[in-house]
Amino acid sequence: MTDQTSSPAPRRRKSLRILLWVLFAGFLLVVLANLLAPDLDLSGEDRVAVIRVEGVILDAQQTVGDLKKFAESPSVKAIVLRIDSPGGGVVPSQEIHDAVKRVRAKNNKAVVASMGTVAASGGYYIAAATDRIIANPGTLTGSIGVIMELANLEGLLKKIGVESVVVKSGQHKDIGSPFRKMNEGDRHILQAVMDDVHRQFIEAVAEGRSLEVGDVQLLADGRIFTGRQAKDAKLVDELGDLEDAIKLAAEMGGIEGEPRVVEPRRRFSIRELIGGHVLGPLPQFDFQTGVSLKYLMAF
Q: Tens place of pLDDT for every residue, the chain, 299 residues?
């Protein structure tokens, strides 16, 4: 009689332990999923993704990867590119521009550009690939042009008694060298390169904005515009802020009501921690030798 009345207690404790282990295992699975796939969404709710392009554009890998990931996500119906950048390197700007075009063509998803404080030169190059561009009235944009900055240290080296010795196999192999004065032949070659890259910029804007190349060329002298001036020049579609861009993207993506917004979640990185918090307060020097083309607003 006593055995029969006491036997249910161990069974209840065993069931409770199993339940606790199941809950613990479920918790671990959620944590692992968050670490290994931080953007995984199981709700199935339609969303608008916001990808931020901020600061000088030096590399396209992260932004291109975010675009590809959200383009392939069935729950993301539209993407907003929040651009707050004076531009940067020619190639990374072009790579992000082309990635935006692939999202629109291959994945058939709307991409809206939202301009922050500045979206100039390479920042505008990227925006030109989107379906619609929204800028704040005071946004600085435009700066459609190319810049190349070369240092000439010849005079300084002479003062300190240092002589540069160059051995080369071609007449222009040391073009852009900081150790000698640029000659007319070098200048002619570099100007031809600049003109071609500038032409690529103009053609990209003309295609993206459905404008004539000649009309864009009149605006492509490196000048900057406010958001309101850019709208008058047909470089921008509407005036508004990030919230306006998100609402427009949601409408274009067929989302009814208030859209849910998702952004890429950055994984923990020792490299970024050291770069941002340890080296961040130290002065940064950007000294480059050789030829470097930039879609960058000079400031």
A: 455 555 666 767 777 777 777 777 777 775 565 555 545 555 568 999 999 999 999 999 999 999 999 999 999 999 999 999 999 999 999 999 999 999 999 999 999 999 999 999 999 999 999 999 999 999 999 999 999 888 888 888 888 988 888 898 988 888 888 888 889 999 999 999 999 999 999 999 999 999 999 999 999 999 999 999 999 999 999 999 999 999 999 999 999 888 899 999 765 455 555 544 444 444 444 445 456 788 888 76
Please state, in angstroms and as integers, the Cα–Cα distance from residue 65 to each residue in 70, 71, 96, 246, 295, following that order. 9, 10, 10, 21, 21
Q: Which residues are catalytic?
A: 121, 173
**246: closest CA among 79, 99, 123?**
79
In total, the chain counts a number of residues equal to: 299
Residue 14 tokens read as: 């065993």
Domains of the chain, start order: 42-266+288-296 (3.90.226.10)
Instruction: Assess contact for 136 and 241: CB atoms under 8 A.
Output: yes
